[in-house]
């Protein structure tokens, strides 16, 4: 009986160490470990005014110091480049349109919110959201509820699910519209920008 009790106690000790709950610090560390991340995305936008969801697909590149390159290829070509104080948007072969933060601060507010979500900037997000972190199988799930305007006038909540990287990002709007972005084929190599990628961030 004594041997069984000792064995049972040992199992509980091992389990308690292996099943420690994930923390916000853990999530931020996972998402900021790599300075460069590439991958593919599928965005499904469900809108109250349409019977069928709008689906778009493409590729992305996130460079922690430079910004975000977002290239939609389907159903039509759109290229977005977001850096610290500027946003470049290009449709198909048209000339890119550049918007400066000082000219349209609200656009940049929401654009940089998306960038903060994508980069896992937990410290920055804490100022704007109530956060609830939980575990979903082997993944972590972070639910963000906006604290104040303008976010609480647009979003009911935002959820982020992932493991090493973000796998799913869902934006639930008060209007009932929902945007779900699923990420795939994410890789941290090569870990340097190509010349073409460098040029994309220079505008």
In short:
This protein has 203 residues and is α+β, with helices and mostly antiparallel strands.
What layout of secondary structure does this protein have?
Blueprint: H1 2-18, H2 24-32, E1 36-46, E2 54-63, E3 67-74, E4 78-82, E5 86-91, E6 97-100, H3 105-119, H4 122-126, E7 129-136, E8 139-146, E9 155-162, E10 166-173, E11 178-187, H5 195-200
Antiparallel strand pairs: 1-2, 1-11, 2-3, 3-4, 4-5, 5-6, 7-8, 8-9, 9-10, 10-11
Characterization of the model:
A hairpin with a 7-residue loop joins strand 1 and strand 2. 26% of the residues lie in helices and 42% in strands. The longest helix is centred in the first third of the chain and has 17 residues, at 2-18. It has 203 residues and is an alpha+beta fold. It is built from 5 helices and 11 strands, in the order H-H-E-E-E-E-E-E-H-H-E-E-E-E-E-H. The chain has helices at residues 2-18, 24-32, 105-119, 122-126, 195-200, and strands at residues 36-46, 54-63, 67-74, 78-82, 86-91, 97-100, 129-136, 139-146, 155-162, 166-173, 178-187. Residues 2-19 have low confidence and may be disordered. Strands 6-5-4-3-2-1-11-10-9-8-7 form an 11-stranded antiparallel sheet, covered by helices on one side.
């Amino acid at each position: 009986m004594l041997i069984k009790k000792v064995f049972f106690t040992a199992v509980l000790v091992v389990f308690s160490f292996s099943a420690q709950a994930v923390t916000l610090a853990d999530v931020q560390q996972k998402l900021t470990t790599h300075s460069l991340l590439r991958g593919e995305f599928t965005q499904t936008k469900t809108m109250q005014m349409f019977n069928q969801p709008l689906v778009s697909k493409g590729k992305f590149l996130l460079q922690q110091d430079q910004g975000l390159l977002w290239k939609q290829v389907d159903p039509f070509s759109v290229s977005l480049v977001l850096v610290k104080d500027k946003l470049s948007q290009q449709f198909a072969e048209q000339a890119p349109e550049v918007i400066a933060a000082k000219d349209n601060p609200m656009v940049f507010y929401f654009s940089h919110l998306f960038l903060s979500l994508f980069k896992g900037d937990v410290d920055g997000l804490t100022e704007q959201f109530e956060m609830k972190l939980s575990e979903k199988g082997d993944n972590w799930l972070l639910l963000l509820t906006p604290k104040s305007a303008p976010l609480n006038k647009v979003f009911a909540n935002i959820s982020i699910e992932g493991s090493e990287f973000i796998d799913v990002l869902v934006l639930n709007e008060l209007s009932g519209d929902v945007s779900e972005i699923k990420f795939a084929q994410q890789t941290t190599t090569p870990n340097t920008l190509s010349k073409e990628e460098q040029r994309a961030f220079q505008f």
